[in-house]
Amino acid sequence: MSKIIAGHELVPGKTVRDYVHVEGTGIDVPYVLLCGMQPGPTVLITAGIHCAEYVGIQAAVELADELDVRDLSGDLIIIPLCNRSGFEHRTMSMVYEDGKNLNRVFPGDPEGTAADRLAYVLFNTFIKNSNAHIDLHCGDGYETLVPFAYYVGDTPAEETARKMAACVNTSYCVRSRCLTGGAYNLAAVNGVPSVLIERGQLSLFPREEIDADKADVRNILKCLGVLEGEAVFYQKTQFMEYDDVSPCTGFWYPEKQPGDPFRKGEKLGEIRDCFGNCLFTECAERDGVLLYQCASLNILEKGPMIAYGVTEGPLF
User: Fold this and answer.
1) Distance between CA atoms of 44 and 200, rounded to whole angstroms?
2) For residues 159 and 224, is the Cβ–Cβ distance under 8 A?
C-alpha cells in the first residue's frame, strides 16, 4: 500500500506542489513531494525553521526544482519555508503570530499558540512519516558561524545519522546532547535519523554557500540510496557543544572569529554600556573552537551570545 503524506498518495513518478494548513491559524506551509520511480526511503528536507536563515531556504527551493523523480529511489518531501509567516514579516528566528522560536517547541501542541500548532503539523504530517531528515540552517541576521553539522547522540538512529553527518563537507560536527525542542532532535528521538547543517551567516545567501548546501544534500541522498552514486565521507573533528547566553543587554564586542581556537581562561568578548563601561566579560571555561556567536553591536539579555565546541575526537 502506498504511503500518504498530507493527503497525497506517493505514487511513482508523481510530483506535488501544495500547502498544508495549520488549523487555528492563518498559516499555510508550502511543500513539494517528489515520488521516485524506484522504491526507497522517504527523506524529508526542511529549511526556514528559522526564517532569516536564507542559505538553506534558497538551497531547498532550488533542490525542489532541480531534482528529477526519474533519478530517485524513494520519495522526497521538501519544505523550503517552514516558518512562512516569520519570513513574510522578517521576524528573524521567531514565528510572527506569537514571537516563539519554532525550533524550541517541537513536537508542538494542536491546542497551543501558532508556533506550537505549526510544530505539531510539521512533526505529525511530515517528520513522523519520514525515514530520514535533513534540516538546513545557517547564521541568523545577527550571527556569524563556521560551517558544521549536528547529529543527535544516544538515539535509536545514531549510527545512520553519524554517516549522514560525515557526508557534509565541513571540518567539524557536533554530537548533540539535546533531546527536546528542535525538529531534528525530536526526529532522532523517534527513530528518524537526522542531521542539521549549519552553513552561512548574517542572513546573507552567497551562491557558493547555496551550492555547497545542495551538494551536501545530494551526497546524503547518495548515502541513503535515494540517488545513484557513491557518497563521499568527509573526516571531521567531533565536538561537544557549549553555549552561553548574554547576562544583560548592552553593546557586544567579540574577541574571536568563528573557527578560531582558544584556551581555557582566554577572553572571548565583552559587554559594555553606552558609556563604554564594562558590564560583563566572557572568558572561556574550557579549551575549544568558536562555532558561532552574536555579531551585532547590540546584544539582548538572555539572547544568544556565543557557542563553542570542545573536541571529543574524530567522527569515525
Assistant:
1) 21
2) no
Residues in the chain, overall count: 316
Locate cell 529549511: which residue?
A: 47
What is d(CA 250, CA 93) in angstroms, rounded to the nearest whole number? 20
249 and 301 in contact (C-beta within 8 Å)? yes
pLDDT class for 316, splitting at 50, 70, 90?
confident
Provide φ and ψ at 174, rounded to 5°: -120, 125
- Omega prior to 107 cis, within 30 of 0: yes
For residue 115, the SS3 value is: helix
Q: Class assignment of domain 241-310?
A: mainly beta
- Report the SS3 class of residue 229: coil
CATH 3.40.630.10 domain span(s) along the chain? 4-223
DSSP character at residue 218: H
Give dist(CA 25, CA 88) in Å, integer.
15
In this prediction, residue 242 has a pLDDT band, given cuts at 50, 70 and 90, of: very high
User: What confidence category does residue 2 fall into, taking pLDDT thresholds of 50, 70 and 90?
Assistant: confident
pLDDT tens-digit readout, 142-200: 999 999 999 999 999 999 999 999 999 999 999 999 999 999 999 999 999 999 999 99
**Secondary-structure percent of the chain, ordered helix, strand, coil, rounded to 5:** 25, 35, 40
Class of domain 4-223: alpha beta
Q: Where in the chain is the domain with CATH 2.40.50.100?
A: 241-310
Half-sphere exposure of residue 185, counting CA atoms within 13 Å on the CB side? 17
Distance between CA 122 and CA 114 in Å, rounded?
Answer: 12
Q: Is 143 left (phi over 0), alpha (psi -120 to 50) or beta?
A: beta
Mean confidence (pLDDT) of the chain: 97
Q: How far apart are CA 192 and CA 186, in angstroms?
A: 8
